[in-house]
Fold:
Amino acid sequence: MSAIKRLPDAEFEIMKIIWQGEPGITTPMIIDALDGAHNWKPQTVLTMLTRLIGKGFLVSERVGRQRNYTAIINESEYMNMETDGFISRYQGNSIGSLVKTMYGGKNLTEEEIAELRQWLKEKEQQ
Structure:
């Protein structure tokens, strides 16, 4: 498989709906999930779905009069790619720099610190 490409925000929003739904989600289900947030016409949603198929994010299957869409790239794969790209572009591939930037000047909760410690322990054991 070729490298995963970064999605424009609108296509990412469509993918979030697909990832949260059951495989085989239909166009009307996607439009309903958007809940009028963007006032996109059905044709706009169909165009984005076609682009996502072309980019290798989705497959579609005709079932009766509907098209069912299923994600090929899962949310975790995409989010890992986005995070790696962000860290590389903006933080010089430094996790420490990322954490400092994200939490600079803010107090971390005990829960957040414990979560970071647990993550670091797991990374040490790999």
